[in-house]
């Protein structure tokens, strides 16, 4: 073997190869001087779809809450700039006389969607539980009320809750406007309107386009600072998320309970239903979806949930809807109350054979 | 990068050095030897590749030139005289060997032409053999490097990973940051092995084919030349 140092023109291989390898080595030292670290991967934002029952379970609230509200509402710190307007079937309900048996105290929930444009009704929230508490301002004189409306201060100032954020401005109680009107006589409305007008004239400059709220005055006097947090928005201001509702964690009906309740409702409906002639041998089975209040009254107009090509279907479905309207409010035994979330939406199949036979 | 720097940078933190030199320096002695051996093999194999490529192209050009001259109608005696004095290779060597045998047979006192044709064939065979051997020498080294250096590199890797795992067992720390540098430097050995082996295998196949082609060309020329010489012999015997 030849010495590697000697360079011959005939066989320059070793020298060339050695130089080449040295060059590659140097290039490698430069290129691999440092390993590029992995890039930090970005965290994905998880998005959950919250079903209605989940939402209800979320409104369950806390054990330490002072009171329980009959209606669950998601927490909202301020009014949404753009209100999500849903089609309000209640608009038509204004014209249609309500079922005679409905109790007035329990205003249907849909009414509050239609109500806000009517100023006279707003500041008079009906309360089931009367809570008279000392307030900084003298309570507004109550307009005359009907017998079942309990005399009460219009606003329920809530004590500052410990769960609220520690900043003093945020923690101060903002009374919750409850624009839940109830059905009243026109005369009564007019009478109240006059009283309200006088009051509003004094209080309006504070917040002209929002709801008038005497407690706001005190709040505005106390602090002019801006809120630290923008807060969550909603259709209405609701500071009472922690209070929860009795039906909050939405227990489910067991199969047998569901069966029993279904039979109960069917029994009641059967007495109200007068199917059209020849319905007994029709094949159509209209399915009516009704939304119920806790007292068994209808929360919204019942709707037909299915369709069919059967010519008799239309008349059958109309008669079923009539039956549901006539039957409301349904008698629902108190043992089903905790399961309200489960039977709030109830579908009834009006099978003529089953109902009549 | 001088050794003092390397020693400083490599000693304190085990996982810190990830440059090429750092990987080499932290490796176990066996792995280091494997790496050095593989680098040496790579240098050698490339030296052979370069030499052989040059040799083959040179010898192909020489054959082309010789055939041109040979078939140009030039007298064989003149050609022999011009070639005999300098060392020849390839076809020229074959031609010179046959012509020398031819001349010796006629120049001697006793004209021994009876088995001249056989003797010339023998001489041609031997010369071709020698030439082919010259062409093919060291090609086996390429084959050996191509076949064995992956295994050598793998041996270095296995050894390095073994060492790495022993260190893990000793330090009782299994996080990837601790394991990774050792494995990287171990894999470096396989990388060098493949770096040496791949060109060796490719070049071996190519050069082997070239050598076979040149050998076939030499044999073809030898057959033709031997035919010419035996015709001359027969003519002389008849004359």
From TrEMBL, chain B:
PANTHER family documented for this protein: PROTEIN TOLQ, TOL-PAL SYSTEM PROTEIN TOLQ
Membrane topology: Multi-pass membrane protein
Protein name: Tol-Pal system protein TolQ
Chief subcellular location: membrane
Native source species: Chelatococcus albus
Membrane spanning residue stretches: 29-50, 139-162, 182-204
Record's keyword terms, sorted: Cell cycle, Cell division, Cell inner membrane, Cell membrane, Membrane, Transmembrane, Transmembrane helix
HAMAP family in alphabetical order: TolQ
Record's subcellular location: Cell inner membrane; Cell membrane
Function statement: Part of the Tol-Pal system, which plays a role in outer membrane invagination during cell division and is important for maintaining outer membrane integrity.
Coiled coil region boundaries: none
Domain MotA/TolQ/ExbB proton channel residue range list: 112-219
Subunit structure: The Tol-Pal system is composed of five core proteins: the inner membrane proteins TolA, TolQ and TolR, the periplasmic protein TolB and the outer membrane protein Pal. They form a network linking the inner and outer membranes and the peptidoglycan layer.
């Amino acid at each position: 073997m030849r010495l590697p140092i000697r360079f011959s023109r005939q066989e320059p291989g070793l020298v060339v190869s050695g130089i080449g390898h040295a060059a590659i080595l140097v290039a490698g030292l430069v290129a691999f001087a440092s390993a590029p670290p992995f890039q930090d991967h970005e965290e994905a934002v998880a998005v959950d779809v919250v079903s209605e029952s989940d939402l209800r379970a979320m409104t369950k609230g806390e054990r330490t809450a002072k009171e329980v509200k009959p209606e669950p509402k998601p927490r909202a710190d301020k009014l949404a700039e753009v209100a999500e307007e849903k089609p309000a079937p209640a608009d038509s309900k204004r014209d249609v006389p309500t079922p005679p048996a409905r109790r007035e105290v329990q205003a249907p929930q849909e009414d509050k969607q239609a109500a806000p444009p009517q100023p006279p009704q707003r500041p008079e929230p009906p309360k089931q539980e009367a809570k008279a508490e000392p307030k900084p301002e003298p309570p507004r004189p109550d307009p005359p009320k009907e017998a079942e409306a309990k005399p009460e201060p219009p606003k329920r100032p809530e004590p500052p809750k410990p769960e609220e954020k520690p900043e003093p401005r945020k923690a101060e109680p903002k009374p919750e406007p409850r624009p839940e009107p109830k059905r009243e006589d026109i005369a009564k409305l007019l009478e109240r309107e006059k009283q309200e007008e006088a009051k509003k004239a004094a209080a309006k400059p504070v917040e002209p386009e929002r709801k008038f709220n005497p407690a706001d005055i005190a709040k505005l006097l106390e602090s002019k600072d801006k809120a630290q947090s923008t807060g969550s928005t909603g259709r209405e201001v609701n500071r009472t998320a922690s209070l929860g509702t009795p039906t909050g964690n939405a227990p489910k009906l067991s199969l047998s309970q569901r069966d029993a309740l279904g039979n109960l409702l069917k029994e009641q409906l059967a007495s109200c239903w007068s199917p059209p002639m020849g319905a007994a041998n029709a094949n159509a089975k209209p399915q009516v979806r009704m939304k119920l209040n806790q007292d068994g009254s209808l929360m919204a107009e019942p709707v037909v949930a299915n369709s069919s090509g059967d010519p008799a279907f239309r008349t059958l479905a109309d008669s079923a809807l009539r039956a549901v309207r006539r039957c409301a409010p349904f008698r629902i035994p108190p043992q089903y109350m905790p399961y309200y979330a489960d039977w709030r939406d109830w579908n009834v199949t009006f099978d003529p054979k089953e109902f009549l036979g | 990068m001088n050794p003092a720097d390397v020693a400083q940078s490599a000693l304190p933190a085990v996982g810190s050095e990830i440059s090429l030199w750092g990987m080499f320096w932290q490796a176990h002695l066996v792995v280091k030897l494997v790496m050095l051996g593989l680098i040496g093999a790579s240098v050698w194999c490339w030296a052979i590749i370069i030499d052989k490529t040059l040799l083959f192209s040179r010898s192909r050009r020489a054959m082309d030139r010789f055939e041109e001259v040979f078939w140009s109608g030039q007298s064989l005696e003149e050609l022999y005289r011009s070639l005999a004095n300098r060392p020849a290779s390839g076809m020229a060597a074959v031609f010179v060997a046959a012509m020398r045998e031819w001349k010796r047979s006629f120049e001697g006192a006793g004209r021994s032409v009876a088995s001249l044709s056989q003797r010339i064939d023998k001489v041609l065979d031997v010369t071709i053999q020698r030439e082919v051997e010259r062409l093919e020498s060291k090609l086996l080294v390429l084959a050996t490097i191509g076949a064995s250096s992956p295994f050598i590199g793998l041996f270095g890797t296995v050894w390095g990973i073994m060492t790495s795992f022993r260190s893990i067992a000793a330090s009782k720390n299994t996080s990837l940051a601790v394991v990774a540098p050792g494995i990287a430097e171990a894999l470096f050995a396989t990388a060098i092995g493949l770096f040496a082996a791949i060109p060796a295998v490719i070049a071996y196949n190519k050069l082997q084919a070239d050598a076979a082609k040149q050998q076939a060309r030499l044999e073809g020329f030898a057959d033709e030349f031997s035919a010419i010489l035996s015709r001359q012999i027969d003519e002389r015997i008849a004359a």
